[in-house]
Specification:
about 190 residues, mainly alpha, three-stranded antiparallel β-sheet, 7 helices, binds fe (ii) ion
Amino acid sequence: MYKAMDFSHLLGTPGFSDTLLSNHFTLYNGYVNNSNLLLEKLKEAQSGTPELNEMKRRFGWEFNGMRLHELYFGNMSKEEKKLDSGSMLGKKMAESFGSGEKSKKNFTESASLRGIGWTVMYYDKQADRLMNVWIDDHATNHLAGCAPILVMDMWEHAFISDYGLKKPDYMEAFMKSVDWEQAEKRLEMAMKN
Ligand SMILES: [Fe+2]
């Protein structure tokens, strides 16, 4: 069974109202609860039934909804933590995109697609490079075998109550809140594995 993580330490993050964050934590809890509920129901489901088919498909959606939120809140910080261009992540960003700034620009451009979903900076160990991808909804477009390094929620609930339709303003606030030290740790872990 999955246990919901507590991200209340993020309350007070500049650029994010406590109301928006609290509602967002509640939504995240829903994904944890539904992942657990599906796990239980899958145990009882009979093979070859439409119910099993649908629940199997649904599980990836709920699980990714849960895990992406953990990665997203997990790479946010109330205190500003700058990207260290001399760190492994800084170097890989420069190698993969030309510079740290170009890498960030590519990330927010990837996030500007129409629709709801996520943007994920993945590390592809096989090719030893970073890629920014758009995830439709929660579950479509993930790169198999790649490690998520930086995750941004682009569902409307992530910004609309604070920013209305001004996605660029939300993205700017998010980029200021990024915990680059955490992203660096994720890359180090992915490179080791
Ligand atoms: Fe969300």
